[in-house]
Amino acid sequence: MEKRLDQYQLNRRSFLKMSGLLGLGVASSGIIPAAAEAIKFDRNRYKVSKTKLGIGTFVALTLLHSSKDQAEQALDLAFAEVSRLENVLNRFDQTTALSYLNQEGKLKRLPPDLEQVIFASLQYHKLTNGAFDITVAPIVDYFQEKYKHGQKLMPTDQEIQKLLALVGARKIDLSGGSISFARPGMGITLDGIAKGFIVDRVAEVLAKNKIENFLINAGGEIRTMGKADKNKPWRIAIQDPFKNKKYPDQIELNNGALATSGSYEVYFDREKMFHHIVNPRTGLSPHQSISVSVVAETTMQADALSTSVFVMEPGPGINFINTLPQCAALVMTPQGRILKSKAWKSATV
């Protein structure tokens, strides 16, 4: 699934990945401030921003508020929430309930946050007719391990079929605050939904602390509220997967969310056949799309749907988004073709 929670690499490419913001934007110098940066934005407001490493990427928060102290306090509370939830939803940390679940195949008394994300994942599995499936973890782990040392051997059909026997969200029993897997060896990855869930929770923290204008960017998972520069909507540029230093499109958001799933950042093999998004029906990585951006009401929704549409072929994926209220999508193919859903609204220049 999308957006690995275990990637903690402080490199320029990772930072630039999240720098597709215009207007107030995020600096792309690669310098991560240790403390919040506060500047007088206009007569009545401060622009307070801070970037920290978290949930496997860089989390950048930009707030506009009349009180610098109140904004900085809200930033601290927001990043504390990131750390708290990361300690719940990271499957690579052996101390988390999620890691224990994957090891034992069952867990009683799920932590409420973990239960909520798993429940939502099962709902998106149904909504997408199986395209979104958190049980692909054994396949993702297999690809990563197989190609870790540069091997070129393709997996055999027998190997793929053996792994597919462990895949299927219907093999999860979630009830009464407990969860169990139907087969030994199963595991779940929340990489395609957890980051969006965390961003939404951060937005709730900011709103509860009376921050009415903000932008959150967690490695491409974006949530906005209120207004930006000159009382205009937040303007967001879509990342160019071909690295041609141009933006395929731009959108404007007031209160909304955007998530992008792409195959161009993380490949397990040198031939770029296997990446971090897996089709749960075939056990292979889809290649019909190179980037999928989805606008939705919440970041968790946009996160899960962008992964789902990536698994679908571009045409069916766009048609699927067209059936959902308050959602829009832009899909780019490896050949450079761009498809937009009916509700996708490009920003005017």
How would you characterize the overall build of this protein?
By secondary structure, the chain is of the alpha+beta class. It has nine helices and 14 strands. It is 31% helix and 21% strand. The strands form three sheets. It has a nine-stranded antiparallel sheet with strand order 1-2-3-7-8-11-12-13-14, covered by helices on one side. A hairpin with a 5-residue loop joins strand 1 (37-40) and strand 2.
Cα(first) to Cα(last) distance is 35 Å
Percentage of residues in helical conformation: 25-40%
Number of strands: 14
> DSSP helix count?
9
The largest sheet, given as strand count, sense and whether it forms a barrel, is: 9 strands, antiparallel
Secondary-structure element sequence?
A: HEEEHHEHHHEEHEEEEEEHHEE
Residue runs with pLDDT of under 50 for 5 or more positions: 1-32
Overall 3D shape: globular
Strand content: 15-25%
What's the average pLDDT? 87
Spatially, the strands of the biggest sheet line up as 1-2-3-7-8-11-12-13-14
Query: Any idea what the radius of gyration is?
Result: 20 Å
What class would the helix/strand composition place it in?
Answer: alpha+beta
Short description:
With 349 residues, the protein is α+β, with helices and mostly antiparallel strands.
